[in-house]
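INFO  loader      accepted 1 record
INFO  loader      residues=275
INFO  predictor   begin
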Amino acid sequence: MRYISIDEDAVITIQSGPVVGKVAVSNDKTLAYGATINGANTVYVYKKSQAWVPSRLSDISSGTDIGNRIIECLTSGGPDGQLRAAEMSYPKTKFQDLMDDLFGETGKKIIRKSNEILFEHNDFSGGPFAYIAYSAFEDCFYVTTDKNKILKVWVKEDGTHAYEQINQNNTGTTDGFLADEAKFQYLRGLTIDEDGNIFVCQGDNSHVIRKIAYDENMEKRYVTTVLGTSTVHGTDDGSPDIALFNGPQDISYDGNGGYWIAMRYEPALRKYSIE
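INFO  predictor   done
INFO  writer      dumping tokens
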């Protein structure tokens, strides 16, 4: 993760290791969030007040400090430090073995070096992808995961984070009301315009762009497929009803009616323009 400051005329590396996708930045430019696009589905928080040092979004990843307590035992210098550390690590190891057995058929394995309950995935084509975008309309963030979940994340008055899933766990490309009818699959990148409309890519074997919009009373949200055909891939340009895509991976809104779409399987950058 690199931070580029025009005022300071400098490029600063603020995080190494995790592969983080498009970063979402708050309206006041004091908070940034990044979601990993491989490895574990993890959201990192970067705060200007903390010199942009990354930390995990603890509300999304269930944490445990057992690893830190084991390290304390090993470095305490006490005669029984190693014995106590072994006793502490045994339940953790048994739990990790249980999780590996439970998720074995999915290809996921628990990350044993992490102090948090995080998983890695052996099948990159299936992709443990996660993407994040900021909504200035609602002053919150939205996250998509490869498990077809769309999460709304916001900062509470006490400074902690809260989140909720806004869609159902249904797989497909069905339009309809978000709460109980719409279906998604192969969720990838997303962007949000000034009216709060969410545009999200469906990649891999579903080559479409979906739109999530509030009704006129701001009570319910409706999902429509605005670009592409889920069963057909291609690179044809044209009006929304004939344009084709091949694995749309991410999308960004330019603030002037233009939506820029990056493709995964084609070396192309596409533009969808609302005029």
